[in-house]
Amino acid sequence: MTAPRPWSSDVEVLEVRRVRLVEVVAPGLSEDERLVMDRAWNAAVRANPSLFDGPVAASAGMVREEPDGVVLSWMRTTYRHFALCRVPGVTAWLPALFVTVVQPSDDGRVLVGRQSSWTAAPGRWQLPGGSIEPPAPHAPLDIAALRRNAVRELAEETGNDAAPDDLALWLVTRGVRGSVGVVFRAPSRPADWLLERHAALGASERAKGREPELERVRLVRAPEELSGLGGPCVDHLEPVVRRYAGMAPGGEERKPDGS
């Protein structure tokens, strides 16, 4: 496995060819912790009524599996549990497990988007992607399921209908608060086409009386351009863009491994 490079002192970035997922049981909450969680969640919903308490996968840790893979432990929970991370002094919160997609344009740039006001992170710039919906009880969560999650997020946020086999497993990131992301690379598309697809998606959503999840998208070539976007960026965005910008022009694309 390629060793993590110091793109950021706080975000770990690993290039991988294999990801193995292992389900573990989520730790229980004390009565006091549950009360704190419920209060925090109710306050978050009052501030943003679009939030919902559906099932979601949380990260339980990441271990390297030589020579070129990682083992990701995960737990079943609901979005309510993530509200605990906003409460000072509480240690029972769980880090997120998510998928994200590097969508290149044909001129070497990468598509990034700013989340709309109704989302859980309004105004934040990130790559297309999102949290992982856990499978049915006793069903496995595997790389194929992650690809399906990733293509669904890509379509919902950008209007780009890719197929799961189009996505190449590329990186795993671990952020400043322990959240783990599985990063896929999509095939390059014409820059104008990418912007037009998002514009068409936005027009369709607004015709239905709602804003798209990514209210705005941009194409960036280098991490230095992120500071000019006008808003905060998710912690893994800069190191992932930097890693992509450092790839050799015309280098061979890694093929999906199907593992």
UniProtKB/TrEMBL annotation:
Signal peptide: none
Domain Nudix hydrolase: residue ranges: 92-246
Pfam families according to UniProt: NUDIX
Superkingdom to which the source organism belongs: Bacteria
Residues that span the membrane, as ranges: none
Protein name as annotated: NUDIX domain-containing protein
Organism: Streptomyces yunnanensis
